[in-house]
UniProtKB/TrEMBL annotation:
Name the UniProt record assigns to this protein: RNA helicase Mov10l1 isoform X3
Superkingdom of the organism of origin: Eukaryota
Origin organism lineage: Eukaryota, Metazoa, Chordata, Craniata, Vertebrata
Keywords: ATP-binding, Helicase, Hydrolase, Nucleotide-binding
């Protein structure tokens, strides 16, 4: 039914897609002239995903082809069952060696039967699996147990060697699969003992016997709910326990008795005969003061036969544990102490009786609360051939304790003064957007409001240390959270203050279809900085002291026009009235950072402040090439080599100690692929990095992939992700980057590798991101990322650092991911980097930070936050710690860094040798090697405008209208010239040609210009005449014989600003959108690849 009015059948649904209740559809409807009913003759699903299903499939994939499903086994019967309640699978479709159980997470290929809505799996295998060696059986309860405190097993589905029964403290090896079993995420498929320990403590035997004692036996079922709850001291309460024979054979109850654990004898009992069962019903409904038995009813009982079994249990069950109650019971009321005191304590064994098939026997338990505290007693029901036990429990509180007990649930109550004030403002919010409604995420992230005192310090320019003295301290584990929280608040205060400057009054909006458009001057230059999904507030003019606020969200941004979504009624009623516009700061990322700081305590010193290196057994065994190791990988000393060999040998021995085989699933030891690398073009340093990541020798210490410009850092990450996916079937990898563009690049590269099958990888986007900004090739992966719960189960998840916080909102915490990669980690602030890191295991997880600490760091706008360290990325901070620092003496043979923690890539595949020489000397210890394609980097050496042929670096000097002396004031910024990291980025972008445009007399005053002293050449400059202030030999000095050129690339004449014909061949295009420094109006220069352009002298030309 559609809207409870329109009938339709499966034949009317286009493309035979599966529809869900609540899904939006478009239908062609006809009316039945006889019944006047409505019937849909065509039903088409409205896709609120990134792309329609027909577009999302890979080329050539038809609707009848198998599709990939990741889901949980929700029901099971006779080996067959359903995945996610909808997809059927048979026993024949399950892979060899895998016996599914309810709760198991699986990956299945399924297809939809033509003409029906039913889906059926053609192959089912575990989503994640692994082998664990030499782990201990933690606990046993009946037929269920736990291994290593984290792996569930049940004897009903566990494969065991013949004759072996697991016992507590047995040392075992097992093959486990991912499964949701209560609080456990792994389930054991098969188990074999490595070493069985003897039980030395008598309580262990008692605990094992207790588990069997509490089970129903002989078709006798006994009430399990035997907890009296909380009672006041002096009170009295009764409870009825039902003993029912559900078998075909009579059972003789020999006797009932109490084990005698409760020395105060607060429990007593009576077995009801046939004449008393009727009165039992009225007993339950009597008032509290009349619900107690009389002395005549509760009599002393004769002793029963004490079998050897009873005597053994009575003496050995002193420390038994209770089971969870699952049945209903009849409870009597509580009476006064005086009325119960005269009754005789009945704790002796009750004479037995025969319980026929289908018959029942009732036992009344009376509890008299005497001593404050928790009390537990054991009731033994002794039958002819077995014993059934039940725990009796009560919590007794004294009169004083009851006076301070909670009397009603806590709730906030408004003060009288606030209720008396009349509201002067009405807020109208926008209806939920369609795309947001798919996720339905619980929004439990705390608000983390900015402290008012901190705001006052910033606004009144009071010393910030008066609010948080910890800012002046060195960062350590004790001040970690408080210091970064304060820095995040400082950045927020600056952002809010900056946005307030752009608030406008009395503006009118124009219509664009059903939406409204606001023109924001300066938006194209980032003033203010707005993004899709940001919130704006429109306010009406005040009328009689009343203002109406309309909350809207940014839907689209085009130059200076912002398309907004408001409440539909407002959009229709708006008649171009003047409105006040207030911009708001989106605090989502900041709140996620604050939350990640709270989770950072789980990462601990090993991850945040690593010092001691403890080698772990390798995750994957590699066949290391000895000669190659000696050259690029071997530790610097024989002592180090021996330590690594010893550690590797330990790992091998541990894995071989207990071999568990599950046919079709797990071999003996995870090994690298036969064809070692997916990308055969990797250089030796890249291969070394992949091996180190896959081995994980120092986990959980972060592994750093130091990637200078153009050295193939992202290519290395792609290879490492693929290797982890195939070599470690229990892995779940999270790949993050600070920006969408960087995350999209990783997803695109993995897609182009064609090494991941559909359903293995997902790209999860922020809720505010729109389809138009997504590359077509990765849209299918984005579609799966719309469901955050489902996306969390994929084995490779790609998202931004901020959007990784969505996983916190569905309850994921430490340990969900086995590997976390952060690409461009140097561009993320440390709190932002912590968001994905908080989801990895703090014990065995592998963290990989890839980036270049010598290039641009995080964008921080607050001068205060920058001064106290927020602009230092986690990557840069770790690289300054002793364990990660450069040490040529200790690690000279390994690239000067400890190869267990850092791999530095040095082969540059981007730039010409002339362009690479300066950054290599200034930032990378002259280690960068030129490996770029000669046909690309030499393509402009013959350009006719080069002052010196064969030298692809030109400085074009121009004079600007500025006071050169004013740049000594630190209030003036020269863009990349005042920031070494920005300077490094600017000069390492071009491949074949670099042109520097600016005033050399200003340039040599700043640090980067001074670094360049003596490095320059007289072969590639043009423009301004030399002055005495320009040092001889400077990079920017005009060589003799070179005249001032009256030209500028792509048509801007420096003297007049007039356009001139482009004199550069089509292959010579300039990258970036830059402005001319010459007198006259600024003009944009066309950008492209293959060359670079810089400018200086009062204007920042780099973007």
């Amino acid at each position: 039914m559609i809207d409870d009015l329109i009938y339709f059948s499966s034949e009317a649904v286009t493309s035979k897609v599966l529809l869900n209740v609540g899904q939006e559809v478009i239908a062609v409807v006809e009316e039945n002239k006889v019944s006047n009913g409505l019937k849909a003759i065509r039903v088409e699903a409205v896709s609120d995903k990134w792309e329609d299903d027909s577009k999302n499939h890979s080329p050539g994939l038809s609707d009848s082809s198998p599709r990939v499903l990741i889901g949980c086994v929700t029901s099971l019967r006779n080996g067959a069952g359903y995945i996610s309640q909808t997809t059927y699978f048979s026993r024949e479709s399950v892979c060899e060696g895998f016996e599914p159980c309810k709760g198991d997470w699986v990956e299945a290929e399924y297809w939809i039967r033509p003409g029906t809505w039913s889906s059926e799996a053609v192959s089912v295998k575990p989503l994640r699996y692994k082998r664990v060696d030499r782990v201990c059986v933690s606990s046993l309860c009946g037929r269920n147990g736990v291994i290593d405190d984290c792996i569930f097993f049940t004897l009903d589905s566990l494969k065991l060697p013949e004759g072996y029964v697991p016992r507590r403290h047995d040392l075992v090896s097992a093959v486990v699969v991912e499964s949701s079993q209560s609080c456990y995420v792994w389930r054991a498929l098969c188990l074999t003992p490595v070493h069985r320990r003897d039980f030395s403590a008598p309580e262990e035997a008692a605990g094992e016997a207790c588990g069997a004692l509490l089970q129903n036996k002989g078709d006798i079922e006994v009430t399990r709910m035997t907890n009296f709850g909380t009672m006041k001291e002096g009170g009295c309460k009764s409870m009825v326990i039902c003993i029912e024979n559900k078998g075909d054979v009579p059972q003789y109850l020999v006797c009932c008795k109490l084990a005698g654990w409760d020395k105060a004898k607060q429990f007593r009992f009576q077995m009801l005969d046939k004449t008393q069962r009727c009165s039992m019903v009225s007993l339950v409904s009597l008032p509290e003061e009349e619900k107690n038995f009389s002395d005549e009813t509760i009599n002393s009982l004769d002793s029963c036969r004490k079998t050897d079994t009873c005597q053994t249990l009575e003496s050995s069950l002193g420390n038994s544990r209770a089971v969870s109650p699952d049945d209903c019971v009849c409870k009597g009321g509580s009476g006064e102490k005086e009325k119960c005191a005269s009754r005789k304590q009945v704790t002796e064994p009750e004479p037995g009786r025969l319980i026929p098939p289908g018959g029942q026997t009732l036992v009344v338990i009376i509890c008299e609360a005497k001593n404050s505290g928790r009390c537990k007693e054991l009731l033994l029901l002794c039958f002819s051939n077995f014993i059934i036990g039940r725990f009796l429990e009560v919590t007794v509180v004294s009169e004083e304790e009851s006076l301070i007990a909670v009397r009603e649930p806590f709730s906030w109550k408004n003060s009288k003064s606030s209720q008396a004030l009349a509201s002067t403002k009405t807020t109208v919010v926008v209806t939920t957007q369609k795309r947001n409604s798919r996720r339905q995420l619980p929004s439990f992230l705390p608000q983390y409001p900015i402290p008012d005192r901190l705001k006052r310090c910033v606004e009144q320019k009071i010393d910030i240390l008066t609010f948080q003295p910890l800012l002046a301290e060195l960062l350590n584990m004790s001040n970690y959270k408080e210091k970064f929280s304060a820095l995040l608040w400082l950045e927020e205060i600056h952002a809010e203050t900056e946005l307030k400057e752009y608030n406008v009054t009395g503006v009118t909006l124009r219509r664009n279809g059903d939406l409204l458009v606001l023109e924001v001057p300066g938006l194209a230059e980032g003033r203010p900085s707005l993004y899709a999904g940001d919130k704006l507030i429109l306010k009406t003019q005040e009328y009689n002291g009343h203002i109406i606020e309309y909350i809207g969200y940014v839907m689209e941004i085009h130059e200076e026009d912002v398309t907004l979504k408001f409440n539909p009624e407002f959009e229709q009623a708006y008649n171009f009235e003047p409105m006040d516009v207030e911009f708001t700061y989106n605090r989502t990322t900041s709140r996620r950072c604050h939350f990640a700081l709270e989770q950072a305590i789980h990462l601990g010193v090993k991850v945040l402040f690593p010092e001691e290196i403890i080698l772990q057994s390798p995750q994957v065994m590699w066949d290391w090439n000895h000669a190659q190791d000696t050259q690029t990988d071997g530790p610097p000393t024989s002592k180090g080599r021996k330590a690594m060999r010893d550690q590797a040998q330990v790992g091998v021995e541990e894995r071989q100690a207990g071999t568990v085989e599950a046919s079709g699933l797990v071999g003996k030891t995870p090994k690298a692929r036969e064809k070692e690398f997916f990308n055969l073009m990797l250089n030796e340093n890249q291969k070394l990095a992949v091996r180190r990541i896959l081995s994980g020798d120092c986990r959980p210490l972060p592994y750093v992939l130091f990637g200078p410009p153009g050295t193939g850092k992202t290519v290395t990450i792609i290879e490492a992700v693929l290797q982890v996916f195939y070599a470690l079937p229990d892995s779940r990898t999270l790949v993050c980057a600070p920006s969408n563009s960087a995350a999209d690049l990783v997803c695109l590269r993995l897609h182009k590798s064609q090494a991941l099958r559909p359903g293995a990888m997902v790209r999860m986007n922020a809720t505010c991101r729109f389809e138009e900004t997504i590359t077509e090739a990765i849209k299918p992966y984005c579609r799966d990322g719309e469901d955050v719960w489902r996306a969390s189960r994929f084995r490779v998840v790609i998202t931004t650092c901020s959007s990784a916080g969505l996983f916190y909102q569905i309850g994921l915490r430490v340990g969900h991911f086995t590997h976390v990669f952060v690409d461009e980690a140097g561009q993320a602030s440390e709190p932002e980097c912590l968001i994905p890191l908080g989801l990895v295991s703090d014990v065995t997880g592998q963290i990989v930070l890839a980036g270049d600490p010598m290039q641009l760091g995080p964008v921080i706008k607050s001068r205060l936050a920058m001064a106290y360290g927020l602009s230092v990325s986690m990557l840069e901070r770790l690289m300054s710690r002793p364990a990660y620092m450069r040490d040529e003496d200790a690690f000279g043979a390994c690239g000067a860094y400890n190869p267990l923690l850092v791999t530095k890539l040095v082969k540059n595949y981007r730039s010409h040798s002339v362009l690479l020489a300066l950054p290599s000397r200034l930032f990378y210890h002259r280690e960068l090697e030129v490996c770029a394609d000669p046909t690309v980097v030499t393509s402009l050496l013959g350009w006719e405008k080069l002052p010196r042929k064969g030298f692809p670096l030109v400085f074009h000097g121009v004079r600007v209208r500025s006071n050169e002396d004013s740049f000594e004031d630190d209030r003036y910024f020269l863009g990349f010239l005042s920031n070494s990291k920005r300077f490094n980025v600017a000069i390492t972008r071009p491949k074949a040609l670099l042109i520097v445009l600016g005033n050399p007399h200003v340039l040599v005053r700043v640090s980067c210009g001074q670094w360049a002293q003596g490095r320059g050449s007289r072969r590639g400059t043009a423009g301004c005449k030399a002055r005495s202030s320009v040092c001889t030999g400077s990079l920017f000095r005009r060589p003799a014989g070179i005249q001032h050129h009256k030209w500028c690339l792509h048509g801007v004449q420096p003297a007049t600003g007039a356009a001139v014909p482009a004199e550069v061949s089509p292959s010579v295009s300039l990258k970036g959108r830059l402005w001319s420094c010459s007198p006259g109006p600024p003009s944009a220069l066309q950008g492209g690849a293959g060359s670079g352009l810089m400018g200086c002298g009062g204007h920042s030309l780099s973007r």
